[in-house]
Amino acid sequence: METTQFTLGIVQFKPVKGQYLRNLESIQAVMHQALNTTPPVDVLVFPETATTGYFVQGGVRELAMPAEHLFADLAARYEALSPNRAMDICIGFYERYEGEYYNSALYGTLEPKAEHSRLVHVHRKFFLPTYGVFEEERFVARGTRLDVFPTRFAKAAILICEDVWHSVTSAIVALKGAQIIYVPTASPARGFQSEQIENVEAYHRMLTQAASEHTLFVAQSSLVGFEGGKGFVGASWIVNPFGKVIMQGPLGQEALLVVPINLDDVAIARAQLPLLSDLRSVLADVALQFDAIVQQERIG
Predict the structure, then answer these.
(1) Is residue 289 part of a domain?
(2) 297 part of a folded domain
(3) Which of 41, 88, 275, 282 is 20 to 30 Å from 68 by CA-CA measure?
(4) What residues contact residue 119 under an 8 Å CB cut-off, 6+ apart?
(5) Would you call 125 exposed, middle or buried from its count of C-beta atoms within 10 A (0-12, 13-18, 19+)?
(6) Domain range for residue 266?
């Protein structure tokens, strides 16, 4: 049963590249920390590729695993903490699924008894950056779905890093009913010409726009640390449905950001600024425009 209020924990996390078991120990330590906040965390969100690190290139094939395998390990680690309550988790990892490899993130509910834990959803990254320092299309396959899924607290969606750089993705999941978008990211610092690091400012701009236009919560969890000389920025943004930043993580540092979420704000924001209902009212015409573009691309 959904509740309108819950406590969100956003993790800025520094994995040891390629060391799954060591990272699992660190993830368990963060779980323990999240159980002991006041109030305790209800939903704990880790970054993209938190279990292995991001720049593993061909190592994906050795490090990728089925979502069920990772979730079973997480559930066992959670049970070992002797918790007295459930906790939801969202975490990025390299996935092996039906003979392919993906940059994925899972969402599930961890229970005090591991056998009662439930894997709820797996999102496979839709847009794979292959430019600059990024080479994802060389090593992983592209996901093909943008889904919204029910959780104990909200109707949620996951967009991984590059997914959210394309505004159409947040529009799609908002139209499908999302009240909150979880955004696991691994974003190397780049662009130092101004006071704000360029990609940190870009995320601020994109996430506040997505939240305000579609009147939903957007919660980013960003990797930190260095891999191959590339430094991940952290600076995670949590934005409410009015487009206001309600918390930002520190630059380049591990952190657990704890913030209360009130889903009543979604309904209030949508009543004040009905842009999503406006879009829904013309959706058939918008779909025709997309169909025309697809047909044009096929012709020529």
Answers:
(1) no
(2) no
(3) 41
(4) 67, 68, 71, 106, 108
(5) buried
(6) 5-275
How sure is the predictor about 95, in pLDDT bands with cuts at 50, 70 and 90?
very high
Following DSSP, what letter does each residue of 154-223 receive, concatenated?
-EEEE--GGGGGSHHHHHHHHHTT-SEEEEEE--B----SSSS-HHHHHHHHHHHHHHHHHTSEEEEEE-
Please tell me the pTM assigned to this model.
0.96
Does the pLDDT of residue 57 top 80, yes or no?
yes
Specify the CATH number for the domain of residue 19: 3.60.110.10
Q: Is residue 280 part of a domain?
A: no
Rounded distance between C-alpha atoms, residue 136 and residue 55, angstroms: 9
User: For the chain, give me the number of helices (H) and strands (E)?
Assistant: 9, 14
**Rounded-to-integer distance, Cα 51 and Cα 274, Å:** 39
Q: What is the pLDDT of residue 55?
A: 95
Q: Is residue 45 a contact partner of residue 257, using CB atoms and an 8 Å limit?
A: no
Q: How high is the pLDDT of residue 193?
A: 62
The pLDDT > 70 percentage for the chain reads 98
Rounded to whole angstroms, how far apart are CA atoms 96 and 186?
19
Q: Is residue 37 one of the residues assigned to a domain? A: yes
> What residues pair up with 140 in beta bridges, in sequence order?
none
Q: Is 213 exposed, middle or buried (0-12, 13-18, 19+ CB in 10 A)?
A: middle
Task: Quick: pLDDT tens for 201-224.
Answer: 999 999 999 999 999 999 999 999
